[in-house]
Amino acid sequence: MNKNGFYELIKNRRSIRAFDTERKVPENTIVKILEAGRLAPTASNRQPVKFHVVQERSMLRKLHNCYSKSWFSDAPSVFVLTGRREDAWVRTFDGYNSLEIDAAIMMDHMILAAESEGISTCWIIAFDPAVVKEVLELKADEIPLIMTPLGYFPDGYVKREMPERKSLKELVTYY
User: What long-range pairs does 65-73 form, CB within 8 A, spacing at least 24?
Assistant: First the structure.
């Protein structure tokens, strides 16, 4: 991909809330997307995040209970990222733990990789972590952090326009 292709990918990526229920994401594509997350940088290269791939229909039905939007249940695959605080890097000055930042970077890499493969995603953190812990049978200290459904959008689905974004002038301070 050339430099301009990367920026176009970022510009065109949208959260998709509709999935073709009949079309599964090929396993080799799933692996490519997971590999993008694995290669993402983490604080002090601690790599404190685990990737859970949910594809079995019965497991997807159970997982749906953590996030009740109807479109979520149409996705043929869901990635759930989890981690343990004790595995993450901690800043010595104030005890800041990098777990959530590491997970966010890894998920962002996977979401952009999915977009480059023509796979739709939607970043989700508004879920019930207790349900996720139960469904995935996570250990007591394993925290569900982020998830995304993955799939192809259905025929006739139109991606929405880019939502309004703040200008660089509003976001940037130069020194």
Answer: 65/128, 65/131, 65/135, 66/127, 66/128, 66/129, 66/131, 66/132, 66/135, 67/124, 67/126, 67/127, 67/128, 67/147, 69/17, 71/17, 71/18, 71/19, 72/124, 72/149
